[in-house]
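Data deposition worksheet. Section B asks for the primary sequence of the deposited chain exactly as it was used as input, without tags or linkers unless they were present during the calculation. Section C holds the resulting structure in token form. Section D is free text for depositor observations; keep each observation to a single sentence. Incomplete worksheets are returned to the depositor.
Section A, Depositor: J.P.
Section B:
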Amino acid sequence: MRIKKIVDKLDDLDGEKREYYLSRLAVVLTTSSKNSLMNFQRNFLEREENPHDYEKFKKEQNKVIRECIKMETSEIGKDRRHRAGKRTFLLDIEIPEFPWVVINNNHIIF
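Section C:
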């Protein structure tokens, strides 16, 4: 699936399907984008009165994902990606399937 298609579907993805596509997207993001997403998640859980409000979490997480993608495609993002040895981030990049990753009892096996 192409990055643009995942971004376009973010608001409609739930459950295991969301987890699957976001984990695929995370593979192609720079460390700074992944850190931004992890910081968002930690801060959301710490600041919210009801951190179990999945729809609010998803909506806010989607904003952060879109901001990260904007950064990845910017000139600064291009420089960060180059320094990290990653190719230029384009929305039409196909994210490959990862047949060597197996999820078994919530553990990822490579």
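Section D:
The chain has one domain: 3-109.
Residues 29 and 56 are 23 Å apart (CA to CA).
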